[in-house]
Design a protein that fits this description.
The chain has 119 residues and is of the alpha/beta class. It contains 4 helices and 6 strands; from the N terminus they run βαβββαααββ. The longest helix has 19 residues.
């Protein structure tokens, strides 16, 4: 579940914004069932949630630094697959996905950071 807060410039993640993410997670669980794996992800320049806000369990932040790292990895992946028509080879595709940490099990932990609540 991704909430992109375009233009967000605050020093914190405000309660109304984190509540919107929580509402989206709740909707997703209701729509797809309680067994659905939902990872709350917010695109923001900061990782601190204001004290009165309650982030959904497991909330991750894609900040500027992590976004740049993700863009670099995707570019490296695409560049490697173009070389000698590697995109035609499933093994090379899998190898590049793994090398660039773009597999489903890697991407969230590599290219986002856990949010923290203000103390």
């Amino acid at each position: 579940m991704i909430e992109a807060r375009s233009g967000a410039t605050g020093a914190k993640i405000w309660k109304k914004d984190i509540n919107q993410l929580a509402g989206s997670v709740k909707w997703c669980k209701g729509e797809y069932g309680s067994e659905a794996i939902v990872i709350p992800l917010m695109m923001r320049p900061v990782i601190i949630v204001e004290r009165s806000g309650t982030p959904p369990s497991g909330t991750r932040i894609l900040n500027g630094e992590k976004l740049e790292a993700l863009k670099t990895a995707v570019l490296a992946y695409a560049t490697a697959l173009v070389h000698q028509d590697a995109y035609r080879n499933q093994g090379k595709i899998a190898e590049q996905l793994s090398q660039q940490k773009l597999l489903a099990g890697d991407i969230i932990n590599t290219y986002s950071i856990a949010c923290r609540r203000e103390t």
